[in-house]
């Protein structure tokens, strides 16, 4: 019946029923156009030589000039390597921490203890990045307590760890683990709480011990959540946020700390090299997009679920 | 009778759990206590250092367990004597309250639309919105966009461009979608216009999620520094976090330089002022979030991402 209605009549019926809602959503649409799609269009400067006087559309086209000069530059290999090192370290060390932490919390019987541990574990998430990075800077400085403890155990470091190339990734990852593990485990705790208790009952009746229950009930219960978050992680393998890098790196650690996003920031917004850095940024966006799609497709095929 | 049954049940589970599980429980408890101490200690250190005596603190080697010397709040006096810190707080309060109003109104409007069932526009529009989560033009075009709109050096540049966070809107959408259809239908058949259905049916039923939204957006405003570093050049308009960055990371503290003239004194107090500043700037949120903690699971985004 409904399929037989002409498009015009369906539209009319739709407008009559939802017209008020369409007016309500108008500011939201305007917002997305002005602050998401307009800059997306503005990214064409990646293929132009942007001249402030001529504006975005008046500047001359140069095709892939900027991308090519990026690919052949000294920075290209270093930025890719650093970006991948930092994000893979996050995948290997930070990502599993939250899962393990959630599984451990889930085994706690005392509600008061559970709640206390959880509340405290969320705390660092609410501290601003500027403050977290300042705390790191203070603690690992030459007279900070972390360096002093290292000296106590026989290390001969006498400068801030943030000036040492090989220390940057560990500092980045460990401070991430400290700040985000508690918060990231919320999602797993929610998934764990949603597991049907009858499944545990049934497993017990079948003679499964605690460990077997964890393997056969608990882990499959959170497998879907883990997969979804893994897709998102893999999808962002080539993107390390610029904020924390900018707050922590310095001239001594560019070799290991400089990533694509921080380079775009420095080249584009500090030095004003708009077209070149927009090209690098766009290249990065395209890779991220492709990675999400790829990870999602693989997951859909292998496990049967994905983010869309 | 029932007591006997529950007793028997308890005994049987205990038997099943066995020795290995009891060892695990002890081990697990110890591990979680250690994790908690490690999480808490850096913050504890900051608080203790901020109220220690400056000389003693400079001489200290290694961990701190208690305030050194006679505890005092001199560092806090220096913090609040700093004009930039005070103006930073005021700017952040402005961004927080005005920003939250924009955030909540626009997020609710968008989420309401996305939760509509049977509308022809929902699918195409949600595709356009979801796309922006996975593909962005990058920070350079975004910066140029804000600049071309004439928002430079205005606090509005920190409010309007971030008025909607798509993740948050999707979380709100799934809360609205969970409102029973029957309520929507009843209101609709009574002739209620959409804005009334939203404001009088949906929003009152989703108080918990609204609270989480206020917290997420609020924390976002409170902790944001990067956009301000791009768009704001007048130090009087700096939000709190940008002031913190100047003092804590870039070691630029001209107000302190003015109030403590002796160079040796200055070096002595500069770290203490940093610790005190960390406490003052983080305390408001750290005191607030535990009250909203029971709602956090509502903000879990995976459910929201699908669909």
Short summary:
Chain A is built from 14 helices and no strands. Chain A has helices at residues 7-42, 55-58, 65-71, 74-106, 111-122, 129-139, 145-152, 168-193, 197-205, 210-235, 242-248, 254-257, 260-270, 274-302.
Beta content of chain B comes to under 5%
| Gap from first CA to last CA of chain B | 50 Å
Number-wise, the strands of chain A total 0
CATH class annotation of the largest domain in chain A: Mainly Alpha
Query: Would you report the number of β strands of chain B?
Result: 0
Search tags:
heterodimer, A: 308 residues, mainly alpha, MetI-like fold, 2 domains, 14 helices, 72% helix, B: 307 residues, 0% strand, globular, disordered N terminus
Structure notes:
Chain A has two domains: 2-58, no CATH class; 65-302, MetI-like (MetI-like fold, Orthogonal Bundle), CATH 1.10.3720. In chain A, 72% of the residues lie in helices and 0% in strands. Chain A is built from 14 helices and no strands. The longest helix of chain A has 36 residues, at 7-42. Chain B has two domains: 2-59; 75-305, MetI-like fold (Orthogonal Bundle). Chain B is built from 15 helices and no strands. Mean pLDDT of chain B is 87; it is low at 1-6 and 8-12.
